[in-house]
Amino acid sequence: SSGINAEYGGIIGMTKEHLGLSLALGVPVYVVVTKIDMCPPNVLEETMKLLMKILKSPGCRKIPLLVSNQDDVVVSATNFTSERICPIFQISNVTGQNMELLKSFLNLLSVRNNYKEGDIAEFQIDDTYSVPGVGTVISGTCMRGLIKTNDPLLMGPDSLGNFKPIIVKSIHRKRLPVKEVKAGQSSSFALKKIKRGEIRKGMVLVSPHSDPQGVWEFESEIRVLHHPTTISVKYQAMVHTGSIRQTASIITMSVQHMRTGDKAICRFRF
Q: Considering the entire predicted model, what is its pTM?
């Protein structure tokens, strides 16, 4: 989703950057125009004209749909995965105008990923907590398989690339205790005999049957959407994957240099 502040910013650089990333990754887009309660009608009209122009441009080729009633919500939600249609919501958090339309739209959206419950369990850790009387608690998303209370799992990789055996003491989902969590669901786990300092973002819980391996290096196909300078070997980039936010250096490239619009196979090292 892209947010646009109708009163102050209008369509700022970050909005265009998010739109560019979504188009490059083939992700469907919807736009939320906020603060319409305090925005003069002429400013809102100018912002909407510019937004429509950008969405219809040859680089985007989207079909903008201004959502104003429940029928529009149903049409936009059912056709959203086609990637051509782009619903636009004009909302106000102060007066609550059109908030119900946005909530209905989000509730009607279908899941894009095909999660398989029969796979080997994998849980991605997003955050850690230390709860008095409970101990160490982690939160995140179950990416594959099925995890139950008292299941033995492996947690890692640590700084040496090792995985440590752990036991899931209890599971909470939407603030309620549950017996199991399935692929695609977010939840919180209480862990037995684990200190909070041993866990960090980017770690995973996996089934002991999966034989996980920690790596320092990985290969990836890179496309440069926009960059002011030349990219070459030893360039350090910020890698965003799942909950990981980590710098990595390019150690080899399939081309000598990369500039805006170029594509190459690169090998990164954390």
A: 0.72
